Amino acid sequence: MKKYMAYMRCGFLEGCAYRSNFITGMLANFIQAAVLYYVWRSIFRYQGVVNGYTWEIMRKYVFVAFLCNCSFSFGFEMNTAKRIIKGDIILDLLKPVPYRGMLFFRMLGTAGMEFGVTLILVGCLYLSVNGAAGIRLERVLLFLVSLFLGMGIKFGIQYLFSLLCFYTDNSYGVTKAREVLTNFFSGAILPLVMFPGGLRRVVEVLPFQGIVFTPCSIFIGTFSMEESLRGIAVQAVWIGILWVCGALFWKKASGVISLYGG
Question: Where does the sequence pass through the membrane (predicted)?
């Protein structure tokens, strides 16, 4: 475990050293959240309720979705692709720890820095706009559990996409494809209840909703306590599924390292 703690520390220090990447990403997400905020405000001027959401609920959702989206940015596909193309991935495989474990704890260290900064900034912004009314301790605790499970789901998805870099030099396309799918199907752009019936049924069987929609719904109260616990259970199941899929895909993808001269 000491080895993993060392990687976590390295990830934290790396996040602090290259904080400009995090700041740039946070600003991009902030612009998206600001645009969504004013778009929804305009919509709710003419409609009091949209698919069960009032302006008060939607206002909270936008801020919490912003928090979920910024807390754990990860984004290691590009770096993985560079290491594969240069052959540096061999150095990672020679280390006395599993590659995925090393990657996870390194990203966990970076996420610690990101989460602390984001929670303070977005928390202050949320309270200044929405106030503390309606915040319940049990929901906050469930939200934090769901948020960290969402982090596990996001890591699992990104890990699978990063392995695609073994088959293509176009890591930019892989990264952007993953970002589009994640943002759209996770509920980062709009709540999944706004999706039409057929598309919503498809989204409900995918893991993406566990990244943003489930934690947001728990915190703002659109999920009952029973639905919240069920959502957390589904998140845990998806982490297990993604972990197994990642292990199987790794065995297949790592076999093509020799194509790059490794």
Answer: 21-40, 103-129, 141-168, 205-225, 232-250
